[in-house]
Amino acid sequence: KPIQILSNPLSTYNQQLWLTCVVELDQSKETSIQTSFLMTVKVDGVAQDGTTMFIHNKVHNRTRTLTCAGKCAEIIVAHLGYLNYTQYTVIVGFEHLKLPIKEMNFTWKTYDPAFSQLEIWFRFVFVVLTFIVTCLFA
């Protein structure tokens, strides 16, 4: 059954967006498992007025490897390199994953907007200083 996940409100200062997943198995912690499965991912952008915009009309199918040695490794579900919308909806499906799953923990990761603002100010000051030095010594 596909899982639908809605992101927090975003701004362009967030720069990029990752959705990761940590699978918690319903087995003993000593068990080591490595298995491949098919993950389906569909990403939709949510506009400011609440309407859903298709980023791609198709569903992305990717083969992922689940590696568990006591605790399962984090899987990157989706990565958006540029944010065109204020919010995103991701629909994730797990196909051919036959392990007994206790829980799936999805986490949104993004750049801190305060860092992005600091980076912009740093670049602005650098450009101004470069211009001043160029005018003085050119």
From TrEMBL:
Pfam families: TMEM181_GOLD
Taxonomic lineage from the root: Eukaryota, Metazoa, Chordata, Craniata, Vertebrata
Transmembrane domains' residue ranges: 120-137
PANTHER family membership: TRANSMEMBRANE PROTEIN 181 (PTHR31918)
Keywords: Membrane, Transmembrane, Transmembrane helix
Top-level lineage group: Eukaryota
Any one GO molecular-function label of the UniProt entry: toxic substance binding
Name of this chain's protein: Transmembrane protein 181
Domain TMEM181 GOLD stretches: 1-111
